[in-house]
Amino acid sequence: MSEYKYNRVLLKLSGEALMGSKEFGIDPSVPERIARDIKPAYEAGVDIAIVVGGGNIFRGLTGAAAGMERAQGDNMGMLATVINSLALQDTFEKAGMDCRVMSAIEMRSVAETYIRRRAIRHLEKGRITIFAAGTGNPYFTTDTAAALRACEIDADVLMKATKVDGIYDQDPISHPEALKFDTISYNEVLIRNLKVMDATATALCHDNHMPIMVFSLDEEGVFDRALRGEPVGTTVIEEDAQ
Ligand code: UDP
């Protein structure tokens, strides 16, 4: 495993990333590409945990905006993450990688229930472990679930794969002159209200000294390079490490 800087990683994938060029749901070519990207690290023995969002299917806030009770909508959003998790599991297994899905909402005929010690055991046995159903609580996001699980499994780093190739001082899509950070502190992310992760997730990582790397999965092989410690995207670090 020596060529890799990190031994245990939590990869956060947004639900929207799974849509690819589609407007909704899952474009099968995306999970297939993710499988290709993570396979070298999997084969080298890096412990890989994944949290996937559900925004490609349903978001609680969208339901609430349409008049639905927020908690009801959030439960639907969490179930959407289970659908995405099962899709990833299927693709990873077809690619020859051992994979388990653990759900924060009990649904024993579909996935194992999340138990922290059992999750660590799966990782130690070299199984990709996908944490489904977010935190299991409404009013949270899968970013917060990713931060929480990363801390619980004692990951070396939380890697957030988004559509943008790092953290910018303003939205790089509407502001082409936006500047990208190589590194930035947690406080700066919070003070500048940069939309990297929600404030709860950022604060949880800060309090627990969990480094965050942000990059775009559209770049082929970027996950592997990030794991090797190559400078990709933006890394969120402690103030005095800057
Ligand atoms: N959700 C929730 N609690 C959690 C995680 C997620 O209620 O701990 C719900 C929430 O409604 C959210 C939806 O699940 O909008 C999908 O997750 P998210 O929006 O984080 O997905 P992403 O933006 O990463 O695709």
Features:
242 residues; alpha/beta; Carbamate kinase; two-stranded antiparallel ribbon; 8 helices; binds uridine-5'-diphosphate
What does this protein look like?
This protein has a single domain, classed as 3-Layer(aba) Sandwich (Carbamate kinase). The chain is built from 8 helices and 11 strands. It has a 9-stranded mixed β-sheet with strand order 4-3-5-2-1-6-10-11-9, with helices on both faces. Helix 5 runs parallel beside helix 7. The mean pLDDT is 95. The site of uridine-5'-diphosphate (UDP) has 24 residues, from helix 2, helix 3 and helix 5.
Task: Give a brief rundown of this model.
The protein has 242 residues and is an alpha/beta fold. The chain has helices at residues 29-44, 60-65, 70-94, 116-124, 142-152, 186-191, 199-207, 222-227; strands at residues 8-13, 47-52, 99-103, 112-113, 128-132, 157-162, 167-168, 180-181, 183-185, 212-216, 234-237.
